[in-house]
Write a structure and sequence with these properties.
Length: 179
């Protein structure tokens, strides 16, 4: 094997971001006015998982760092929490969603604290899989200090868990099989 200088090579990660709180950088914001929501994309900005979603994009051609922020009337308290977290995390910056011409593009490049939890879902192949979802937004200093609460993993209800072939058999048939 030829000699390779590994000094500037970043070691590959496992692509398994654990549930927790992360300081994130907003990388893209797109308004969907007919549905009244913003698609907010982000990446991890600090720590051992820095650039996690950019690395995932390079390795798997998939950007997984996104969340939806609705601005429908019933969702305004959550939008306010988001705006407050961005404002508190970026001194001198204020995102006023109530301004006449609020420009969501000014959010790009701003820091925000995001807390993720695990959620089970049924994969296309019928297996139970786990994904991370944003639970809530907070200011980055709270993330840095560990001042956040993790939600427990959200598991599939029993009636959505796939059953083995034995359990799928009609009642009574199981007793007729002689083994």
């Amino acid at each position: 094997m030829k000699a390779i200088n590994m000094d500037n090579v970043k070691e590959a990660g496992s692509f398994g971001l654990p549930a927790g709180g992360y300081v994130c950088n907003i990388t893209s914001v797109n308004d969907v006015p007919d549905k009244e929501y913003l698609i907010v994309e982000f990446d991890i900005a600090e720590g051992p998982y820095k650039n996690y979603y950019a690395d995932l994009q390079k390795a798997k051609n998939f950007w997984g760092g996104s969340t939806i922020k609705s601005y429908k009337e019933k969702a305004l308290p959550m939008l306010k929490r988001f705006c407050s977290a961005v404002t508190k995390s970026n001194p001198g910056y204020i995102f006023d969603a109530g301004a006449q011409n609020a420009d969501e593009k000014t959010l790009v490049g701003k820091l925000i604290g995001l807390v993720f939890y695990e959620e089970e879902y049924l994969g296309n192949d019928g297996s139970i899989k786990t994904r991370l979802k944003v639970d809530y937004e907070t200011e980055v200093e709270k993330i840095r200090k560990g001042d956040f609460k993790l939600k427990e993993k959200k598991c599939l209800p029993d009636d959505q868990i796939p059953q083995g072939e034995w359990e799928k058999m009609p009642e009574g048939v199981q007793e007729e099989i002689p083994f």
